[in-house]
Design goal:
Largest sheet: 8 strands, parallel, barrel
Shape: globular
Strand order of the largest sheet: 1-2-3-4-5-6-7-8
CATH class of the largest domain: Alpha Beta
Order of helices and strands: EHEHEHEHEEHEHEHHEHHEEEEEEE
CATH architecture of the largest domain: Alpha-Beta Barrel
Distance between the termini: 29 Å
Length: about 400
């Protein structure tokens, strides 16, 4: 779990980064938020000495750093005098134990694929242990498969809170679709990351609520993300909002990251779909279910380009071609992920739709007591091997099931 940042300026002493990023009353106040990674894309031109001081501070908080040396839109990574354009600087940067690797692509044009692939290979020659990280442009009409060999870790951003909120609500299902599509595109042995919204997109829009932030994270986990970054806490993102909004959102981030951090042993364990015998919102025909869902998405998604993609998927499914569909595995209004650690089962679940729904889940065996709804301060008494809960629009829950 990590955050993007911008601004702050860079320093030559780790104590100065502590004062700017972590201390109480600092400009970022990250102390106490159990993040693993940090990426400040304003630091690309900073000398290695300054980055070593930053990484000294980050390491004291259990965090690692990705240094920017990236392309953007249709601009080559060579357009800026990034410090890591010099091979010797890459070698020096790589010596620090908190150096995670390199942010080499941010929503770049497909014309830069081959350049980015070579950049990825070159950095690996200089630093075999360093990871390259790239974020794809979220447009569904782009061919993401072109980028699979251009970086070690691929991410996709999906920011559904754009402009004024439509009467039907923001289309939060976009997060699920983007992550599921990326997971299907990238080979299963490779990790993918979801980059989630932590800023107000336009003056007519708004920041995500805590419930929306949590839903975006749980959607991403269920659809296959092995990591989450939030864009972004700095001058180009969250800090454009008022102080009250900033404080509330940072509190929400801390609450959410703390919950996910506690769940990390579960999150890194293998999925076990057989633990869930039945989901009452499941359909007998996943293809027909997906077609109906796509028609609904067409009606509520304001982006015309997305509507065309949804229509294309419908046409393909009606012709018997499911190769481009990436949400056929369940065919359910409430999508789930089941796991087990020791004598506890875990069921992650979210509502894909903008309609409130009830769901009954039948576990593979009768729970040995009440089912706890994680981080919500409530529990559900099962009826035999089943338990029932309600979901608001796009709402997510995590259930801890004693076995």
């Amino acid at each position: 779990m990590g955050v993007y940042d911008s601004g702050l300026g860079y320093f030559n002493k780790s104590s100065q980064y502590e004062a700017a990023i972590f201390d109480a009353g600092s400009r970022r106040e990250l102390n106490g938020i159990p993040l693993n990674a940090y990426l400040n894309y304003h630091y690309g031109e900073a000398p290695v000495r300054a980055m070593n001081a930053l990484m000294d501070a980050l390491r004291g908080h259990g965090m690692m750093y990705f240094q920017t040396v990236n392309c953007f839109e249709d601009g080559s990574y060579r357009r800026i005098n990034f410090n890591l354009l010099e091979d010797e600087n890459v070698r020096d940067f790589a010596q620090h134990p908190a150096a995670a690797g390199y942010y080499i692509m941010d929503e770049c044009s497909d014309s830069l694929v081959e350049e980015t692939r070579e950049h990825h290979r070159h950095l690996h020659r200089l630093d075999p242990r360093g990871l390259t990280f790239a974020t794809l442009y979220p447009a569904l009409n782009r061919d993401w498969s072109l980028w699979t060999n251009a970086a070690d870790i691929l991410s996709v951003d999906s920011y559904p809170l754009y402009d004024a909120e439509p009467p039907s609500g923001y289309p939060h299902f976009r997060v699920a679709d983007a992550v599921a599509r990326l997971r299907k595109t990238v080979p299963s042995e490779r990790p993918i990351v979801a980059t989630l919204q932590l800023f107000k997109f336009t003056t007519k829009g708004r920041l995500p609520t805590y419930a929306e932030m949590r839903s975006h994270a749980i959607m991403s986990i269920i659809e296959g993300a092995q990591g989450i970054f939030w864009w972004e806490i700095g001058a180009n993102g969250l800090r454009k909002s008022g102080e009250a909004d900033i404080g509330r959102t940072m509190d929400n981030l801390k609450r959410l990251v703390t919950e996910l951090d506690v769940l990390q042993p579960v999150l890194v364990s293998s999925a076990n779909p057989s633990l869930l015998k039945k989901n009452s919102t499941g359909a007998s025909d996943p293809v027909s279910f997906r077609i109906d869902a796509l028609r609904h998405n067409i009606s509520v998604d304001p982006l015309y380009a997305n509507k065309r993609v949804y229509k294309g998927e419908i046409d393909a499914l009606q012709k018997g071609d499911a190769s481009g569909s990436y949400l056929l595995d369940q065919g359910a209004f409430i999508r789930t992920l089941a796991k087990r650690i020791g004598n506890r089962g875990y069921l992650f679940a979210y509502n894909y739709t903008n309609q409130s729904r009830s769901a009954t889940f039948t576990w593979h065996k009768r729970p040995r007591g009440s089912v706890a709804v994680n981080a919500e301060g409530r529990s559900i008494d099962p009826q035999g091997d089943s338990f029932t809960d309600s979901f608001g629009p796009y709402e997510a829950h995590v259930y801890v099931i004693p076995e």
